[in-house]
Amino acid sequence: MTATTQGLNRFLAAAKPSATYRVMDRVAARRAEGKEIISLSAGEPDFDTPSHIREAGVTAIRCGQTRYTQVAGLRALREAVADKFRRENGLDVDWRHTLVCTGGKQVIFNALAATLNEGDEVVIPAPYWVSYPEMVQVCGGKPVIVECGVRSGFKLTPSLLENAITPRTRWLILNSPSNPTGAVYSREELLGLAEVLVAHPHVLVLSDDIYEHLIFDGLAFFTIAQVEPRLRKRVLTMNGVSKAYAMTGWRIGFGTGPAWLIDAMEKLQGQQTSGASTISQYAALAALTGPQDFIRESRDIFQRRRDTLVERLNRAPGLHCEVPAGAFYAFASCEGLIGKKTPAGKLLLTDEDIVNELLDNAGVAAVQGSAFGLGPYFRIAYALDDASLERACGAIAQFCEALSN
Ligand code: GLU
Protein backbone atom coordinates (compact mmCIF):
# COMPACT_ATOMS: atom_id res chain seq x y z
CA MET A 1 0.00 0.00 0.00
CA THR A 2 1.30 3.45 -0.80
CA ALA A 3 1.04 6.62 1.27
CA THR A 4 -1.63 7.92 -1.07
CA THR A 5 -3.90 4.87 -1.07
CA GLN A 6 -3.59 3.69 2.51
CA GLY A 7 -5.98 6.33 3.83
CA LEU A 8 -8.73 5.61 1.33
CA ASN A 9 -12.01 4.18 2.42
CA ARG A 10 -11.68 0.47 1.70
CA PHE A 11 -15.03 0.22 -0.08
CA LEU A 12 -14.12 3.09 -2.38
CA ALA A 13 -10.63 1.68 -2.92
CA ALA A 14 -12.19 -1.58 -4.15
CA ALA A 15 -14.58 0.17 -6.57
CA LYS A 16 -13.79 0.88 -10.21
CA PRO A 17 -14.02 4.35 -11.76
CA SER A 18 -16.99 4.95 -14.08
CA ALA A 19 -16.25 3.14 -17.36
CA THR A 20 -18.46 5.47 -19.38
CA TYR A 21 -16.68 8.54 -18.06
CA ARG A 22 -13.30 6.90 -18.67
CA VAL A 23 -14.11 6.50 -22.35
CA MET A 24 -15.48 10.05 -22.50
CA ASP A 25 -12.24 11.28 -20.93
CA ARG A 26 -10.19 9.39 -23.50
CA VAL A 27 -12.24 10.97 -26.28
CA ALA A 28 -11.58 14.43 -24.80
CA ALA A 29 -7.85 13.64 -24.56
CA ARG A 30 -7.65 12.45 -28.20
CA ARG A 31 -9.54 15.52 -29.37
CA ALA A 32 -7.21 17.76 -27.38
CA GLU A 33 -4.36 16.15 -29.33
CA GLY A 34 -6.13 17.28 -32.51
CA LYS A 35 -7.51 13.86 -33.49
CA GLU A 36 -10.94 13.60 -35.03
CA ILE A 37 -13.06 11.19 -33.00
CA ILE A 38 -16.69 10.24 -33.51
CA SER A 39 -17.96 9.56 -30.04
CA LEU A 40 -20.56 6.86 -29.60
CA SER A 41 -19.67 6.68 -25.94
CA ALA A 42 -21.67 9.23 -23.99
CA GLY A 43 -25.18 8.31 -23.04
CA GLU A 44 -26.72 11.70 -23.60
CA PRO A 45 -29.03 13.14 -26.25
CA ASP A 46 -27.27 15.30 -28.81
CA PHE A 47 -30.20 17.77 -28.99
CA ASP A 48 -30.30 21.13 -27.28
CA THR A 49 -32.58 21.42 -24.28
CA PRO A 50 -35.91 22.78 -25.69
CA SER A 51 -35.91 26.57 -25.70
CA HIS A 52 -38.82 27.10 -23.29
CA ILE A 53 -36.90 25.06 -20.70
CA ARG A 54 -33.68 26.99 -21.24
CA GLU A 55 -35.66 30.23 -20.97
CA ALA A 56 -37.08 29.07 -17.63
CA GLY A 57 -33.52 28.67 -16.38
CA VAL A 58 -32.56 32.14 -17.63
CA THR A 59 -35.69 33.64 -16.08
CA ALA A 60 -34.85 32.00 -12.75
CA ILE A 61 -31.45 33.68 -12.82
CA ARG A 62 -32.92 37.04 -13.85
CA CYS A 63 -35.52 36.87 -11.08
CA GLY A 64 -32.87 36.17 -8.48
CA GLN A 65 -33.84 32.54 -7.88
CA THR A 66 -30.26 31.86 -6.97
CA ARG A 67 -30.46 30.81 -3.33
CA TYR A 68 -30.86 27.45 -1.62
CA THR A 69 -34.06 25.50 -1.96
CA GLN A 70 -35.25 22.99 0.61
CA VAL A 71 -33.09 19.87 0.62
CA ALA A 72 -35.82 17.75 -0.99
CA GLY A 73 -36.46 20.35 -3.68
CA LEU A 74 -38.82 23.21 -4.52
CA ARG A 75 -42.33 22.38 -3.45
CA ALA A 76 -43.65 23.33 -6.92
CA LEU A 77 -41.23 20.92 -8.55
CA ARG A 78 -42.04 18.13 -6.11
CA GLU A 79 -45.73 18.65 -6.88
CA ALA A 80 -44.94 18.50 -10.60
CA VAL A 81 -42.96 15.30 -10.02
CA ALA A 82 -45.88 13.76 -8.08
CA ASP A 83 -48.17 14.81 -10.90
CA LYS A 84 -45.85 13.25 -13.50
CA PHE A 85 -45.90 9.93 -11.62
CA ARG A 86 -49.72 10.11 -11.42
CA ARG A 87 -50.23 11.15 -15.03
CA GLU A 88 -47.69 8.96 -16.77
CA ASN A 89 -47.27 5.99 -14.45
CA GLY A 90 -50.60 5.67 -12.69
CA LEU A 91 -48.90 6.04 -9.29
CA ASP A 92 -50.87 7.84 -6.63
CA VAL A 93 -48.00 9.91 -5.24
CA ASP A 94 -48.08 12.49 -2.46
CA TRP A 95 -45.55 15.26 -3.25
CA ARG A 96 -44.15 14.81 0.30
CA HIS A 97 -42.96 11.35 -0.79
CA THR A 98 -40.79 12.70 -3.58
CA LEU A 99 -37.18 13.82 -3.56
CA VAL A 100 -35.33 15.96 -6.10
CA CYS A 101 -31.62 15.18 -6.47
CA THR A 102 -28.56 16.26 -8.43
CA GLY A 103 -29.11 13.86 -11.32
CA GLY A 104 -30.61 10.41 -11.37
CA LYS A 105 -27.29 9.09 -10.10
CA GLN A 106 -27.76 10.83 -6.76
CA VAL A 107 -31.22 9.29 -6.33
CA ILE A 108 -29.69 5.82 -6.71
CA PHE A 109 -26.66 6.56 -4.59
CA ASN A 110 -28.77 8.12 -1.81
CA ALA A 111 -31.03 5.09 -1.73
CA LEU A 112 -28.14 2.62 -1.51
CA ALA A 113 -26.13 4.66 0.99
CA ALA A 114 -29.20 5.15 3.17
CA THR A 115 -30.07 1.47 3.36
CA LEU A 116 -27.05 -0.80 2.88
CA ASN A 117 -25.09 -2.29 5.72
CA GLU A 118 -21.86 -4.15 5.12
CA GLY A 119 -22.44 -7.35 3.18
CA ASP A 120 -26.06 -6.60 2.22
CA GLU A 121 -26.74 -8.01 -1.21
CA VAL A 122 -28.06 -6.16 -4.22
CA VAL A 123 -29.31 -8.19 -7.17
CA ILE A 124 -28.25 -6.61 -10.45
CA PRO A 125 -29.24 -8.17 -13.77
CA ALA A 126 -26.37 -8.07 -16.29
CA PRO A 127 -25.84 -6.35 -18.65
CA TYR A 128 -26.20 -3.44 -16.25
CA TRP A 129 -25.37 0.23 -16.26
CA VAL A 130 -21.74 0.48 -15.20
CA SER A 131 -22.39 2.45 -12.01
CA TYR A 132 -24.83 0.11 -10.24
CA PRO A 133 -22.31 -2.45 -8.92
CA GLU A 134 -19.74 0.22 -8.10
CA MET A 135 -22.25 2.30 -6.13
CA VAL A 136 -23.26 -0.82 -4.20
CA GLN A 137 -19.58 -1.55 -3.56
CA VAL A 138 -18.88 2.01 -2.39
CA CYS A 139 -21.81 1.74 0.05
CA GLY A 140 -20.38 -1.48 1.55
CA GLY A 141 -22.90 -3.79 -0.13
CA LYS A 142 -22.30 -6.86 -2.24
CA PRO A 143 -23.41 -6.77 -5.87
CA VAL A 144 -25.01 -10.07 -6.89
CA ILE A 145 -24.72 -10.12 -10.65
CA VAL A 146 -27.24 -12.24 -12.54
CA GLU A 147 -26.25 -12.82 -16.14
CA CYS A 148 -29.18 -12.28 -18.49
CA GLY A 149 -27.96 -13.08 -21.97
CA VAL A 150 -29.36 -12.61 -25.40
CA ARG A 151 -31.59 -15.70 -25.05
CA SER A 152 -33.81 -13.98 -22.49
CA GLY A 153 -33.62 -10.74 -24.49
CA PHE A 154 -31.04 -9.48 -21.95
CA LYS A 155 -33.81 -9.54 -19.33
CA LEU A 156 -34.16 -11.02 -15.88
CA THR A 157 -36.57 -13.95 -15.61
CA PRO A 158 -38.58 -15.01 -12.54
CA SER A 159 -36.49 -18.16 -12.05
CA LEU A 160 -33.18 -16.28 -12.30
CA LEU A 161 -34.51 -13.80 -9.75
CA GLU A 162 -35.76 -16.52 -7.40
CA ASN A 163 -32.33 -18.19 -7.46
CA ALA A 164 -30.52 -14.92 -6.72
CA ILE A 165 -32.52 -13.92 -3.63
CA THR A 166 -31.07 -14.83 -0.22
CA PRO A 167 -31.92 -13.68 3.32
CA ARG A 168 -29.21 -10.99 2.82
CA THR A 169 -30.85 -9.49 -0.28
CA ARG A 170 -31.65 -5.84 0.32
CA TRP A 171 -32.43 -4.59 -3.19
CA LEU A 172 -33.18 -5.64 -6.71
CA ILE A 173 -32.27 -3.05 -9.36
CA LEU A 174 -34.41 -2.97 -12.49
CA ASN A 175 -33.75 -0.73 -15.48
CA SER A 176 -36.19 -0.58 -18.39
CA PRO A 177 -35.53 0.52 -21.09
CA SER A 178 -32.08 -0.76 -20.32
CA ASN A 179 -28.72 0.90 -20.53
CA PRO A 180 -26.82 -0.71 -22.34
CA THR A 181 -29.12 -3.11 -24.25
CA GLY A 182 -32.27 -1.06 -24.83
CA ALA A 183 -34.32 -4.06 -23.59
CA VAL A 184 -37.82 -3.17 -22.41
CA TYR A 185 -39.83 -5.22 -19.90
CA SER A 186 -43.47 -5.82 -20.83
CA ARG A 187 -46.26 -5.64 -18.28
CA GLU A 188 -46.40 -9.45 -18.18
CA GLU A 189 -42.65 -9.77 -17.64
CA LEU A 190 -42.79 -7.31 -14.75
CA LEU A 191 -45.75 -9.18 -13.28
CA GLY A 192 -43.71 -12.39 -13.43
CA LEU A 193 -40.88 -10.76 -11.47
CA ALA A 194 -43.37 -9.14 -9.08
CA GLU A 195 -44.83 -12.52 -8.22
CA VAL A 196 -41.40 -13.66 -7.00
CA LEU A 197 -40.88 -10.39 -5.09
CA VAL A 198 -44.24 -10.61 -3.33
CA ALA A 199 -43.00 -13.88 -1.79
CA HIS A 200 -39.83 -12.14 -0.48
CA PRO A 201 -41.03 -9.18 1.56
CA HIS A 202 -37.54 -8.22 2.73
CA VAL A 203 -36.44 -7.16 -0.77
CA LEU A 204 -36.64 -3.51 -1.86
CA VAL A 205 -36.88 -2.68 -5.56
CA LEU A 206 -35.16 0.20 -7.30
CA SER A 207 -36.78 0.89 -10.64
CA ASP A 208 -34.56 3.08 -12.79
CA ASP A 209 -36.96 4.50 -15.37
CA ILE A 210 -34.68 7.21 -16.75
CA TYR A 211 -35.22 6.03 -20.38
CA GLU A 212 -39.00 5.80 -19.96
CA HIS A 213 -39.81 8.03 -22.91
CA LEU A 214 -37.31 6.50 -25.30
CA ILE A 215 -39.33 3.49 -26.27
CA PHE A 216 -39.99 2.51 -29.87
CA ASP A 217 -42.39 0.79 -32.25
CA GLY A 218 -45.43 1.92 -30.24
CA LEU A 219 -44.47 -0.25 -27.24
CA ALA A 220 -45.97 0.84 -23.93
CA PHE A 221 -43.87 1.62 -20.88
CA PHE A 222 -44.58 -0.02 -17.51
CA THR A 223 -42.91 0.33 -14.17
CA ILE A 224 -43.09 -2.30 -11.44
CA ALA A 225 -44.90 -0.23 -8.77
CA GLN A 226 -47.63 0.41 -11.30
CA VAL A 227 -48.18 -3.23 -12.34
CA GLU A 228 -48.07 -4.70 -8.82
CA PRO A 229 -49.58 -2.37 -6.21
CA ARG A 230 -48.68 -4.87 -3.45
CA LEU A 231 -45.02 -3.89 -3.97
CA ARG A 232 -45.57 -0.14 -3.70
CA LYS A 233 -44.47 0.08 -0.09
CA ARG A 234 -40.99 -1.13 -1.04
CA VAL A 235 -40.33 0.28 -4.49
CA LEU A 236 -38.24 3.35 -5.19
CA THR A 237 -39.29 4.60 -8.63
CA MET A 238 -36.65 6.92 -10.03
CA ASN A 239 -36.57 9.09 -13.08
CA GLY A 240 -35.28 12.48 -14.20
CA VAL A 241 -35.28 15.08 -16.91
CA SER A 242 -31.86 14.25 -18.42
CA LYS A 243 -32.80 11.85 -21.20
CA ALA A 244 -36.44 12.82 -21.81
CA TYR A 245 -35.78 16.56 -22.24
CA ALA A 246 -32.09 16.55 -23.27
CA MET A 247 -31.09 18.03 -19.92
CA THR A 248 -28.10 15.92 -18.87
CA GLY A 249 -26.00 18.90 -17.79
CA TRP A 250 -28.75 20.43 -15.66
CA ARG A 251 -28.41 17.48 -13.25
CA ILE A 252 -31.95 16.91 -12.07
CA GLY A 253 -33.23 13.49 -11.06
CA PHE A 254 -36.11 12.55 -8.80
CA GLY A 255 -37.72 9.62 -7.11
CA THR A 256 -40.70 8.48 -5.13
CA GLY A 257 -40.96 5.72 -2.59
CA PRO A 258 -42.05 4.88 0.92
CA ALA A 259 -41.90 7.80 3.37
CA TRP A 260 -39.23 6.17 5.59
CA LEU A 261 -36.90 5.77 2.62
CA ILE A 262 -37.45 9.23 1.15
CA ASP A 263 -36.89 10.72 4.64
CA ALA A 264 -33.61 8.82 5.03
CA MET A 265 -32.44 9.87 1.57
CA GLU A 266 -33.31 13.49 2.35
CA LYS A 267 -31.37 13.30 5.62
CA LEU A 268 -28.33 12.00 3.76
CA GLN A 269 -28.61 14.65 1.05
CA GLY A 270 -28.98 17.36 3.71
CA GLN A 271 -25.54 16.43 5.00
CA GLN A 272 -24.07 16.24 1.53
CA THR A 273 -25.11 18.36 -1.47
CA SER A 274 -28.28 19.97 -0.01
CA GLY A 275 -30.93 20.79 -2.59
CA ALA A 276 -30.18 20.46 -6.31
CA SER A 277 -29.28 23.62 -8.26
CA THR A 278 -32.15 26.09 -7.87
CA ILE A 279 -31.86 27.29 -11.47
CA SER A 280 -31.98 23.72 -12.75
CA GLN A 281 -35.00 23.00 -10.60
CA TYR A 282 -36.89 25.86 -12.24
CA ALA A 283 -35.91 24.54 -15.64
CA ALA A 284 -37.05 21.02 -14.66
CA LEU A 285 -40.36 22.48 -13.52
CA ALA A 286 -40.83 24.01 -16.96
CA ALA A 287 -39.93 20.66 -18.55
CA LEU A 288 -42.48 18.68 -16.56
CA THR A 289 -45.30 21.20 -16.77
CA GLY A 290 -44.76 22.69 -20.26
CA PRO A 291 -45.38 21.34 -23.77
CA GLN A 292 -44.33 17.70 -24.20
CA ASP A 293 -43.88 17.60 -28.02
CA PHE A 294 -40.11 17.30 -27.72
CA ILE A 295 -40.45 13.83 -26.22
CA ARG A 296 -42.31 12.45 -29.25
CA GLU A 297 -40.10 14.29 -31.74
CA SER A 298 -36.84 13.07 -30.25
CA ARG A 299 -38.17 9.54 -29.90
CA ASP A 300 -39.02 9.44 -33.61
CA ILE A 301 -35.53 10.63 -34.50
CA PHE A 302 -33.88 8.02 -32.26
CA GLN A 303 -36.03 5.26 -33.72
CA ARG A 304 -34.98 6.20 -37.24
CA ARG A 305 -31.32 6.28 -36.23
CA ARG A 306 -31.65 2.95 -34.47
CA ASP A 307 -33.00 1.32 -37.63
CA THR A 308 -30.13 2.63 -39.76
CA LEU A 309 -27.48 1.76 -37.20
CA VAL A 310 -28.61 -1.78 -36.44
CA GLU A 311 -28.93 -2.57 -40.12
CA ARG A 312 -25.40 -1.27 -40.79
CA LEU A 313 -23.87 -3.07 -37.81
CA ASN A 314 -25.41 -6.37 -38.85
CA ARG A 315 -23.83 -6.01 -42.29
CA ALA A 316 -20.32 -5.64 -40.81
CA PRO A 317 -18.43 -8.96 -40.73
CA GLY A 318 -18.11 -10.37 -37.21
CA LEU A 319 -20.77 -8.17 -35.60
CA HIS A 320 -24.29 -9.02 -34.56
CA CYS A 321 -26.82 -6.69 -33.01
CA GLU A 322 -30.36 -7.35 -31.77
CA VAL A 323 -32.90 -4.61 -32.42
CA PRO A 324 -33.17 -2.62 -29.18
CA ALA A 325 -36.72 -1.70 -28.15
CA GLY A 326 -35.75 1.46 -26.31
CA ALA A 327 -33.11 3.90 -24.97
CA PHE A 328 -30.50 5.17 -27.46
CA TYR A 329 -28.02 2.33 -27.23
CA ALA A 330 -27.17 -0.59 -29.47
CA PHE A 331 -25.39 -3.47 -27.79
CA ALA A 332 -23.47 -5.31 -30.49
CA SER A 333 -21.89 -8.72 -30.09
CA CYS A 334 -18.31 -8.67 -31.37
CA GLU A 335 -17.65 -12.34 -30.72
CA GLY A 336 -16.91 -12.79 -34.41
CA LEU A 337 -13.92 -10.44 -34.12
CA ILE A 338 -12.26 -12.17 -31.19
CA GLY A 339 -9.04 -13.92 -32.21
CA LYS A 340 -8.62 -11.80 -35.35
CA LYS A 341 -5.69 -9.52 -36.12
CA THR A 342 -5.61 -5.86 -37.14
CA PRO A 343 -3.55 -4.88 -40.22
CA ALA A 344 -0.87 -3.70 -37.76
CA GLY A 345 -0.73 -7.20 -36.28
CA LYS A 346 -2.56 -6.57 -33.01
CA LEU A 347 -4.42 -9.66 -31.81
CA LEU A 348 -7.94 -8.92 -30.55
CA LEU A 349 -8.57 -11.02 -27.46
CA THR A 350 -11.28 -9.08 -25.64
CA ASP A 351 -13.98 -6.54 -26.32
CA GLU A 352 -11.78 -3.99 -24.58
CA ASP A 353 -9.06 -4.65 -27.18
CA ILE A 354 -11.67 -4.06 -29.85
CA VAL A 355 -12.90 -0.72 -28.49
CA ASN A 356 -9.30 0.42 -27.94
CA GLU A 357 -8.45 -0.38 -31.56
CA LEU A 358 -11.67 1.21 -32.79
CA LEU A 359 -10.72 4.40 -30.98
CA ASP A 360 -7.08 4.48 -32.05
CA ASN A 361 -7.43 3.23 -35.60
CA ALA A 362 -10.98 3.93 -36.72
CA GLY A 363 -11.50 7.15 -34.72
CA VAL A 364 -14.72 5.80 -33.21
CA ALA A 365 -15.37 5.64 -29.47
CA ALA A 366 -17.62 2.96 -28.01
CA VAL A 367 -17.73 1.30 -24.57
CA GLN A 368 -16.76 -2.35 -24.07
CA GLY A 369 -19.60 -4.71 -23.06
CA SER A 370 -17.52 -6.24 -20.27
CA ALA A 371 -17.83 -2.91 -18.39
CA PHE A 372 -21.58 -3.56 -18.39
CA GLY A 373 -21.10 -7.13 -17.17
CA LEU A 374 -21.39 -8.97 -20.48
CA GLY A 375 -18.73 -9.51 -23.10
CA PRO A 376 -17.68 -9.71 -25.83
CA TYR A 377 -19.98 -6.87 -26.81
CA PHE A 378 -19.68 -3.14 -27.26
CA ARG A 379 -22.18 -0.40 -26.58
CA ILE A 380 -22.90 2.30 -29.09
CA ALA A 381 -24.81 5.40 -28.05
CA TYR A 382 -26.50 6.63 -31.23
CA ALA A 383 -27.16 10.06 -29.79
CA LEU A 384 -25.47 11.95 -32.59
CA ASP A 385 -26.43 13.46 -35.93
CA ASP A 386 -27.14 11.36 -39.03
CA ALA A 387 -23.99 12.34 -40.92
CA SER A 388 -21.67 11.47 -38.02
CA LEU A 389 -23.53 8.23 -37.41
CA GLU A 390 -23.15 7.35 -41.08
CA ARG A 391 -19.41 8.03 -40.91
CA ALA A 392 -19.10 5.99 -37.73
CA CYS A 393 -20.89 3.03 -39.31
CA GLY A 394 -18.59 3.24 -42.33
CA ALA A 395 -15.49 3.35 -40.11
CA ILE A 396 -16.67 0.38 -38.01
CA ALA A 397 -17.44 -1.68 -41.12
CA GLN A 398 -14.04 -0.86 -42.61
CA PHE A 399 -12.32 -1.81 -39.36
CA CYS A 400 -14.09 -5.19 -39.30
CA GLU A 401 -13.37 -5.86 -42.97
CA ALA A 402 -9.64 -5.14 -42.54
CA LEU A 403 -9.19 -7.80 -39.83
CA SER A 404 -7.56 -11.11 -40.68
CA ASN A 405 -7.46 -14.55 -39.09
N1 GLU B 1 -25.77 7.14 -18.20
C1 GLU B 1 -24.93 7.62 -19.25
C2 GLU B 1 -24.12 6.50 -19.89
O1 GLU B 1 -24.27 5.36 -19.56
C3 GLU B 1 -24.12 8.79 -18.82
C4 GLU B 1 -22.76 8.55 -18.24
C5 GLU B 1 -22.82 7.89 -16.91
O2 GLU B 1 -23.21 8.55 -15.95
O3 GLU B 1 -22.52 6.69 -16.88
O4 GLU B 1 -23.36 6.77 -20.76
From TrEMBL:
User: EC class of this enzyme?
Assistant: transferase
**A molecular-function term among this protein's GO annotations:** transaminase activity
Q: Which PROSITE patterns match?
A: AA_TRANSFER_CLASS_1
What are the required cofactors? Answer: pyridoxal 5'-phosphate
Enzyme Commission no: 2.6.1.-
Q: Which InterPro entries match?
A: Aminotransferase_I/II_large (IPR004839), AspAT/PAT-like (IPR050596), NHTrfase_class1_PyrdxlP-BS (IPR004838), PyrdxlP-dep_Trfase (IPR015424), PyrdxlP-dep_Trfase_major (IPR015421), PyrdxlP-dep_Trfase_small (IPR015422)
Question: Start and end of every Aminotransferase class I/classII large domain?
Answer: 36-396
Q: Which GO terms describe its biological process?
A: amino acid metabolic process
**Keywords attached to this entry:** Aminotransferase, Pyridoxal phosphate, Transferase
Q: What Pfam families has UniProt attached to this entry?
A: Aminotran_1_2
Family indicated by similarity: Belongs to the class-I pyridoxal-phosphate-dependent aminotransferase family.
Q: What is this protein called?
A: Aminotransferase
Question: What does the record give as the organism's lineage?
Answer: Bacteria, Pseudomonadati, Pseudomonadota, Betaproteobacteria, Burkholderiales
